[in-house]
């Protein structure tokens, strides 16, 4: 152990974006973890850090003994096998139990191939990401979308001439942040909810660094006031990902309206929309399921079972 160098992790800085993006563009990733914006915005609430070594990108997170890594991201000439071995060294050095999270089926298959008898793979259902066909979200056709369409039509008819969809620009940042504050004010127990506290910090980080992060955003203004907004970006060549969406919960159909208008105006050229995970929250799961995902981005937690024989890349 004495001869092993320790990987040096650091925080995400705006000037790191090109380096991180280069790793994510090496292949077609479908998960929210493969987004510099997401990692940068959530790094302080989730204590996310990164390191780079021999054309392998490492990302770790967690507090106390609950430390975990994402599977390594490699450039074309980087070694996935070496990345996994370096993970083991780090966990051994620090005395933490080995834990990988955010492991997609493709990554799980590669890890199993390295050592078939080394790991336990546990489905992490709360972190499955929901993927929808863009045209389904635009057309809302058929019986399975009837309630969505009814709510959307109610909103349009109830407030005809009194609302508009607008793209998010610097001129309306303050209005969007006021709408965000209103949403949290109406959420009971917000002060004690670490997840929501972290989300609020992440959203404000995105607004404060909009010019460099370059997200796409849309909002709905009613009676000259922003009441809903949504923020996303392109995740890969045919998929947009929605990172944040806030809507006044007291206005019937507003949630359906911002969902629909944002997709129509910003993402109609895409094939898929990734709306991320439900975090195990029953209400959020019901909402995401009700839009009829075409598939999920499955995730696994990976823990150590027993030593085995390794293979190379």
Describe the overall structure.
By secondary structure, this protein is α+β, with helices and mostly antiparallel strands. The protein folds into 2 domains: 14-127 and 298-304, 3-Layer(aba) Sandwich (Aminopeptidase); 129-297, Aminopeptidase, CATH 3.40.630. Helices cover 37% and strands 24% of the residues. The chain contains 11 helices and 14 strands. It has helices at residues 17-24, 36-46, 80-94, 105-114, 134-139, 146-158, 173-185, 194-208, 210-213, 254-266, 282-290; strands at residues 49-53, 56-63, 66-69, 73-74, 99-103, 119-123, 129-133, 163-167, 216-222, 225-234, 239-247, 272-274, 295-297, 300-304. Strands 8-9-10-11-12-7-13 form a 7-stranded mixed β-sheet. Strands 1, 2, 3 and 4 form a 4-stranded antiparallel β-sheet that branches. A 3-stranded antiparallel β-sheet has the order 5-14-6. The longest helix is centred in the first third of the chain and has 15 residues, at 80-94. It is globular, with a radius of gyration of 21 Å. This is DUF2156 domain-containing protein. InterPro entries: Acyl_CoA_acyltransferase (IPR016181), LPG_synthase_C (IPR024320), UCP018688 (IPR016732). Pfam families: LPG_synthase_C.
């Amino acid at each position: 152990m004495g001869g092993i160098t320790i990987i040096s992790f650091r925080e995400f800085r705006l000037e790191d974006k090109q380096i991180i993006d280069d790793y994510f563009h090496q292949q077609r990733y479908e998960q929210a973890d493969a987004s510099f914006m997401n990692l940068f915005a959530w790094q302080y609430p989730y204590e996310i850090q990164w390191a780079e070594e021999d054309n392998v990108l490492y990302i770790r997170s967690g507090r106390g003994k609950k430390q975990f890594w994402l599977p390594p991201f490699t450039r074309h000439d980087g070694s996935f096998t070496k990345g996994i071995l370096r993970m083991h060294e780090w966990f051994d050095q620090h005395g933490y139990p080995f834990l990988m999270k955010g492991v997609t089926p493709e990554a799980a298959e590669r890890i199993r191939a390295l050592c078939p008898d080394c790991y336990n793979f546990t489905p992490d259902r709360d972190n499955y990401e929901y993927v929808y066909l863009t045209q389904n979200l635009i057309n809302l056709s058929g019986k399975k979308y009837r309630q969505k369409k009814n709510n959307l039509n109610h909103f349009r008819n109830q407030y005809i001439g009194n609302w508009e969809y607008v793209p998010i620009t610097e001129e309306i940042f303050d209005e969007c942040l006021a709408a965000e504050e209103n949403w949290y004010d109406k959420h009971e127990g917000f002060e004690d909810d670490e997840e929501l506290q972290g989300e609020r910090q992440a959203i404000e980080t995105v607004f404060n660094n909009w010019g460099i992060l370059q997200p796409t955003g849309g909002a709905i203004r009613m009676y000259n006031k922003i009441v809903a907004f949504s923020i996303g970006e392109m995740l890969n060549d045919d998929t947009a990902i929605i990172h944040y969406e806030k809507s006044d919960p007291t206005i019937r159909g507003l949630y359906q309206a911002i969902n629909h208008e944002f997709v129509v105006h910003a993402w109609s050229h895409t094939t898929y929309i990734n709306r991320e995970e439900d975090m195990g929250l029953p209400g959020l799961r019901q909402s995401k399921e009700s839009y009829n995902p075409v598939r999920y981005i499955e995730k696994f937690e990976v823990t150590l079972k027993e030593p085995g024989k390794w293979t190379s890349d």
